Structures are given as C-alpha cells and as structure tokens.
Amino acid sequence: MKDYVDKLVEIKIRGYEYFIGVFINYGKEWVIIRNISGDYIIDGFKIINRKFIVSISLINSEPLKTIVKLKHLNFVYKLDYDLNNTVSLIRDIKKNGDLIFVLLANEDMAFVGFVDEIHQKSLNLRDLTSKGEMSGFVKNYKFDKIRIIETKTDYLDSLEIYLKYTQKG
Question: Tell me, which fold does domain 2-168 have in CATH?
C-alpha cells in the first residue's frame, strides 16, 4: 500500500463503481483518499474499509495530475485518525466533532450525522436530514457493514454551516 501514498488512484469497492482520489494514508483496517468527485473537483476525504476494496490501481492521467499539482493541494495527512482500528477511528471522528456521511452496501444506503455513541462493534449516529435539520433519530450502524465514511466535503460543510446558523436563532 505504501506505493500508492501521494499518488492518484482509482479504488473499486464491492457494491460501488469506483472512486478516484489522491491516496493519503492507510492502516490495518482503513485507507483514506482525498476525493476527486468529478472532472477535476477535489472534495473532501473518503475513509474506506479495506475489507471491501476489490482493487486499487494507479491513474496515469496527465491532465488530472497537472490540475492537482496546479491547485497546490497539500497532501500531508492532517486528519488525526487512527486507520488501524475501527473503534479508535470512530473515537477520533467523534472527538473532532466531524459531520460524516456513512455509506453501507450500496449508494442508496447512505446516512449523514454526528457520532453519538461508540460500541465495540457499532456506532450510533445522530441523524441529520438533507435539509440540515437534526431528525431526532439516533441510528445504529455495525462497523462490519460500513464501507465508506466521508468527511470534510462541500456538501457536509454546507449542512454543518446551515445547522449552526439555524441553531443560533
């Protein structure tokens, strides 16, 4: 895996097409990429459960490499997440207060929220609606079902800003 660090990669995940990004770091249980969500759009991080990775391949696109370089992206691993242990990873996410997007078996099974409680084999997520409102529901997700955790995306940042704005009034 160390050969992929700081390189453009395409990662195929069971139940999904593939994801493109800059491979940031890896641990025993998880890898993290700086996500490239579309034509040259660099947006947030994907933390991917290694047991669901089907393949990783290097991307040899000169235009994409050049654009990433020209955007002066700093690929230093700044998120202080433990990628070796799921419970520790979730603890780190909760400690940072990060709003996360949890993806399960396929793209139709995705949920947004804040980590509420951490158990040995699952987490409870305080659910946030697509309108930026806390739903009042807390949902439990088993770690072995979570394929991807997204954080620091424009979508999540927008929801978080809106939530803070509405909670002031």
Answer: SH3 type barrels. (2.30.30)
